[in-house]
Design brief:
CATH architecture of the largest domain in chain A: 2-Layer Sandwich
Radius of gyration of chain A: 20 Å
Oligomer: homodimer
Largest interface: A-B, 44 and 44 residues
Shape of chain A: globular
Largest sheet of chain A: 5 strands, mixed
Chain lengths: ~300, ~300
């Protein structure tokens, strides 16, 4: 059984684990990532953590998941808000030099999708499209167990897909971008605009008002299901996956939007596409497991 | 040098050719397809044509391009308006039985994209997205020389992608579908609505009025470039290709829309995506050449 080092690097914490090719976590170490102290500090810390993994040299390689777009060919980040100084920084190369293990990098949505496709909800399906609906919205196309990352890692930047060009733009995204209209943060923002900031702290407060049959809350959730349906129709008409795997915090409230979203999706695609499977993500640690799948998906 | 039989099957005509793996056409036969006379007649005619190809048994396989979505795994058409009775008809299997050659099938946009990616404008690029803008709009995602056809061949049905949900629906497509808004037929329809059916026979008549600085024609072309920009942003944010290859009849009028469309596209994607290459399709016979590429892309 192959074993791999998976690394989930965030702005606050970093987790390093030894994982089997089946996705079983054998050993895991968590540490602050020192994301604001510069790449040298972050890198030397990660190298130490990897060397704390028992018999790390027996692993076939290292995979790293990072936030934001990655140039997977040159193995560098292309944008980084939570990790200071990391754009174009050769983290993967430095890990490779320090450990002797071939090292691969991709963004967190892509590695989560890879994990779900290879050893999670999408296992056995040739084309899996993973969508995370949380504070933001991200996605990953996995074909035959391999992420299609794109020319510069921007494939799956579905949070910026235009759902309705006549809405207001937010956060440097397109006017009517899916993340600005159908994410958890979007529902919170819209709820606050209607009910006031004191009443709405998070998307769950809007769903609570929906439960009380508040007509404005019903309208907001109805708009969200339409917007998500358009998002999924975009993805489906371009990739026609065997399965959509949906993860992220908003799945906790799925009883409010899941079924209606699928009905509206079915109205926006061709007949033969309507029975595509929508399923919930099932891995508890997709980030670190997916990172570990990177060397395997690259042929190791 | 491998040789392959490529077949381009349409409702009116069928072309059968012997083609090298580099895309060179060695021999070609054209015939009526008898598309309305039922699948037995169509099939027996194609078998005869294949047997007319010199030394056809020395070819490694057969590839067929057909109009409309294809189940590439079961090698059958899923929709067919120009070929009567072809839904789920085992054409590929029958060709295989009659010739002894392994036979593969895909839809015409996918095979054209495959041809451009392997031996045309996209040669050498890992991810090529092919878009045909003609009477309709179609597309194909080609990764490492292989078409991503989707679960049932609907990947690349980009003519149905929603560009603006507030427009009128046409032809069973979504309201605001790209094909209804930015195809040659769409521009003709919109031109007729403004200028009258007697003045506008095809999209070129709208461009002619644009040349005369007609403000309504300028408005129509401006809307078309915006709609195409949104279409390309959708594709780019999902697949982040190295290159867009654009074919189809509307490229003949590209001086009216190409550059403006790209500028508007760049406003709708992330910074690192703006320099994706847009290039014109370059093959004169992408349909039959791409059909011939199918067996190779499947590993033969």
């Amino acid at each position: 059984m192959k074993k791999i080092i998976g690394i989930d690097l965030g702005g606050t914490n970093v987790r390093v684990a030894k994982i089997t090719e089946n996705g079983e976590v054998l050993q895991e170490i968590k540490s602050p990532s020192y994301g604001m102290e510069g790449p040298e500090k972050v890198t030397s810390n990660i190298i130490e953590l990897v060397k704390q993994i028992d018999d790390y040299q027996s692993c076939i390689g290292i995979g790293i998941g990072v936030p934001g777009p990655v140039d997977t060919v040159n193995r560098v980040m292309k944008l980084s808000s939570n990790l200071k100084g990391f754009v174009d920084y050769p983290l993967a190369q430095k890990l490779e030099e320090a450990t002797g293990l071939p090292t691969f990098m991709d963004n967190d949505a892509n590695v989560a999708g890879l994990a779900e496709a290879r050893v999670g909800a999408g296992k056995g399906y040739p084309i899996v499209y993973y969508v995370t609906i949380s504070t933001g919205i991200g996605g990953a196309l996995v074909v035959d167990g391999k992420v299609i990352s794109g020319r510069r890692g921007y494939a799956g930047e579905i949070g910026n897909l235009i759902i309705d060009p006549y809405r207001e733009p937010f956060n440097n995204l397109n006017a009517g971008a899916s993340e600005s209209e159908a994410s958890g943060r979007a529902l919170t923002r819209k709820g606050q605009a209607v009910f006031g900031e004191d009443k709405i702290n998070h998307a769950g407060d809007v769903f609570a008002l929906y439960d009380q049959k508040d007509p404005e809350a019903i309208k907001l959730v109805d708009q969200m299901t339409t917007d998500l349906a358009v998002l999924f129709s975009h993805i489906s008409l371009i990739t026609d996956p065997h399965m959509f795997v949906i993860g992220g915090g908003m799945t906790k409230s799925k009883e409010y939007w899941w079924d209606t979203m699928i009905e509206k999706f079915q109205q926006r695609v061709h007949g033969g596409m309507r029975d595509v499977i929508f399923t919930e993500a099932q891995l508890s640690e997709p980030g670190i497991v997916g990172a570990a799948m990177l060397p395997i998906s690259h042929g190791l």
